[in-house]
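Q: Structure for this?
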Amino acid sequence: MTVLIGPSLEDAKELLAAAIRDKRLALLVGSCVVNYVGRAGSVLPEGERVVMLKPDGALLVHQKKKREPVNWNPPGCEASVRLGGKGLQLISKRKRPKEQLLILFKSLELAASFELVDREELHLVGSERDLITLVSNEPSLIEPGFRPLEREKLTKYGMVDLYGVDRDGNGVAIEFKRRRAELASASQLKRYVDELSKKLGKRVRGILVAPSITSSALKLLNENQLEYVRIRKPPTYTFERVVTRERGQKGISEF
Amino acid sequence: MTVLIGPSLEDAKELLAAAIRDKRLALLVGSCVVNYVGRAGSVLPEGERVVMLKPDGALLVHQKKKREPVNWNPPGCEASVRLGGKGLQLISKRKRPKEQLLILFKSLELAASFELVDREELHLVGSERDLITLVSNEPSLIEPGFRPLEREKLTKYGMVDLYGVDRDGNGVAIEFKRRRAELASASQLKRYVDELSKKLGKRVRGILVAPSITSSALKLLNENQLEYVRIRKPPTYTFERVVTRERGQKGISEF
DNA sequence: CAATAGATGTCGTTC
DNA sequence: GAACGACGTCTATTG
């Protein structure tokens, strides 16, 4: 660990150069101008920000608000540092797509580098994948007689989360959402069902499984004879069926 | 600015408490365990990370790789700090949706807080909005005789980027993408066109405008009599038309 | 607040 | 590398 408080631009340059060379994480706090050109382009006039350069080449510029960096470059980029007449330049280049981020420091409050030791990875539960696994192992949660056949079934127009057959032998395409389903999800399901029923030459039902749904998404489902099954989030995991009636009215029946 | 190098947990707690109280940005580097519960849930065993607490309540936990924080809480959250038997606890709570992030520091290499002075905002060019403005001001870029009528036209199933009429009086719905158009964009356009033609009771053409398109997205367009117009990115801004032919063949003609 | 869609989205996975 | 979709997406905008 190296920490410089209120360093000169020269000293900060040395620290940065060493951090890049030794693949250490660098933190800079100071007044800078930021310039980006690539997929889009941006200018950020001078102000005080926090800059983080990671060993994998990721570069973040954070203002004092927001979760998102105001400017950045993703992992895999090459950083270099240069001392020019206008200040300390930190340049990060990306090959494909070609992008460049230039941070020009006018002054620095802090420059530090760290050898972060971290062999751990995040363990996350509650993703869409978990939901699909749950239903695959307990298909009756969807409806009695439902038999899953294929997970991530590839169609010409995208991948169906779960494909199977109902008790009558109809195809069933299921799209899962871990949060409230919106128009895009209903569109997505419709796209799969259209393609599958055409390809298989038989009736394919489409079911959207989500904890809740927007009214227009539900309407889109109704108008296309698609179905919605509500699943309550863990640890409850209750399933309900929203019955599609004529004229887009809806009703809920548990089973 | 306050900087503590290798501080005790007690000293770090004081610094953090003051930073929260005075709405200063805090930076912590040290060994910690991170626990999250909310929309999903996660556990991250002990390791060295960088933690950033912003004055707006945003909280970021960064590992040494990736652009994304491994855990976080968005702006608007309430942070508090506590010294327990197991270490220094930094707790961040969100009201809606209810979420909680707990960072438990075992040891610290650095604790610092800053009063960032920054009145500047990012100026970005090259977004989708810029593209729509360009075409609105120069409609012939789409085709001769195209007349834009409404931007962000609201339909029952979403907003059309640009709506207008062609030289024959047909409706024209245009969807813009600043990058390569994929299946979702084609679906989106189809959804708008289906709805608009039904509502208006007349033929409504659908045009997807993008710098490039995936083959399956183009096929979906073709199969639904939708069109694709290629636009080269700035500073070039050239338009080409990809002619939709029978049987999904494609051709390109400039004009 | 809900809904909708963009984003320099990023990231993982598969082909 | 291209395509496709999830993400604790985040963020802005509009009703």
